[in-house]
Amino acid sequence: MKLLTIIEKIKRFSNQDLALYLLIISSFLPFYLFLTLFVLYIILLAFTGKLKQVFKDLTQHPFLLAFIGFSFIVSMVAGNYIGAVISVGFVMYAIFFKYYQRRLTPDFFHIVLQTVLLLSIFAAGFAFLEHYEIVHKFNYTFLSPKMQVWHQNRAEVTFFNPNYYGIICCFCIMIGFYLLSITKSWFWKFIGAVAIGINLFGLSFTQNRTAFPAIICGAIIYLFTTIRSSKAFWLSIAAFGIGLMFLFSSDIGVRMGSFGSSMDERVSIWNAGMVLFKQNPWFGEGPLTYL
């Protein structure tokens, strides 16, 4: 019944809100499809005249516009055309979030969060199938030969990289905590708890070493700042214990055991970044210089 209520609310969305809602949930599609829809959405907003007020709002953020302009100019001067495209992407994201703020209502916000949690459960299921090689990973080599699969046993779902999917899991876990703390519906409390647990499994399938310490700290801070009672203490202890269990489980533990050798790879990346920084320490060469 609760799901039917959401569907009824979605049916009552205006065309603008429905388009915005569909774009947000399309972020669970393969990333190239989402980016295509995102660009088309911004173009549609421009052609329908919906961006006039958004541009006025953006002029109230001169430092943001100056940073984006600086990023674009430096990238072009350095011949870093990928960086220039990324800078244009900054503008598009700024436009999107300003427009999103103008359309946002409490009801719309909660429906988006509830839908994202439900989709994250299906994503974690796909991560399980990926990790145990029951299904093949998405192949992006048709976009570029460099975009081959590098992480055979690490789940990435539709987000191209295990670390990116790990970030999505972290977001969904915190959304689950938020839903648990604000909703009075036992149905959505249950969904929130299930989503937290399942996204912890999804996170473990990414074998992301740094995500678990981050989500442990984030959960503890969130619980203490929102619940403010002895319940927060015990929930924090539970979050800490569950996080440690996943951190040193068989899957994660293998990568934790190779942490030292992996650090050598990280240090080489940092050294390469420092070399690039020394080449132009004052202005840089724009986003994604290392590519």
Please, could you describe this protein's structure?
This protein has 291 residues and is mainly alpha-helical. The protein has a domain at 2-50 and 105-257. The protein contains 13 helices and no strands. It has helices spanning 2-11, 15-25, 31-47, 52-58, 62-77, 81-103, 106-131, 162-182, 186-206, 211-226, 230-247, 250-257, 259-279. The model has no long low-confidence stretch (mean pLDDT 83).
Quick summary of this structure?
This protein is mostly helical and 291 residues long. The chain is globular.
The helix-strand sequence is HHHHHHHHHHHHH
Q: How many helical stretches?
A: 13
Measured distance between first and last alpha carbons: 50 Å
How many E strands? 0
Query: How does the helix and strand content classify structurally?
Result: mainly alpha
Rough outline: globular
Radius of gyration: 21 Å
